[in-house]
Design a protein that fits this description.
The chain has seven helices and seven strands; from the N terminus they run E-H-E-H-H-E-H-E-E-E-H-H-E-H. The protein has about 200 residues and is an alpha/beta fold.
Length: about 200
């Protein structure tokens, strides 16, 4: 079994999502001996955001690529290969301004490719990256699960469930620590709750 451990928080040692992904990966390894782990830190190794030049390389012959397109195509292929080889993907996804870090979105834009991770058919899109499990470590400074009005502001967990589902991954699980910026007591409570979720999901 192969596990891909991804972090995207820019807060380094102060990151709650990084703390959670480390615990999830460790717990998964403990309950699934022999798991091989590959690590990707999107805060330090951030793929360039898509541009017309980068995206255009997908629709032009390789021999016509310029230097930038060649390098970016190689990077995209490496990220795609890494993603497709993984059985389990642990994703650290803090909420930034109601959504995910742009670094994580840049990675998603590289792996979401027609013909590789999904395809269009006469009956609509079909995901091709099936059979995987995604474990999302979701951290939030505030509380967004307490009411429908607050849940309507969530473009973090909802987006990730949608995009991974679009790629064919139906087993998407969340470990959530919210309210972590609402005082020490609230943060401790959130981390304790997340710890229970981690033990349960890795079983």
């Amino acid at each position: 079994m192969k596990l891909l451990h991804i972090d995207s928080s820019v807060l380094a040692a102060n990151s709650v999502s990084r703390q959670l992904t480390a615990r999830i990966a460790a717990e998964w390894q403990a309950t699934h001996p022999g798991t091989q782990v590959d690590y990707l830190d999107l805060a330090t190794d951030t793929p360039a955001h898509l541009s017309g030049e980068i995206l255009g390389a997908r629709f032009t012959p390789a021999e016509a690529h310029n230097a930038v397109q060649k390098a970016e195509t190689e990077l995209t292929e490496a990220l795609l290969t890494q993603f497709l080889a993984a059985d389990v993907i642990v994703v650290g996804a803090p909420m930034y301004n109601f959504s995910i870090p742009s670094q994580l979105k840049a990675w998603i834009d590289r792996i979401a490719q027609a013909g590789r991770t999904f395809k269009y058919t006469e009956n609509g899109p079909v995901g091709l990256a099936t059979g995987k499990t995604v474990l999302v470590a979701s951290s939030r400074g505030g509380v967004y699960s307490a009411s429908e009005a607050l849940r309507a502001l969530d473009h973090q967990e909802a987006y990730l469930k949608t995009v991974f589902g679009f790629l064919g991954i139906t087993d998407v699980r969340f470990v959530r620590a919210e309210g972590v910026n609402m005082g020490d007591a609230k943060k401790a409570e959130a981390l304790a709750s997340a710890e229970k979720e981690i033990v349960a999901l890795a079983a």
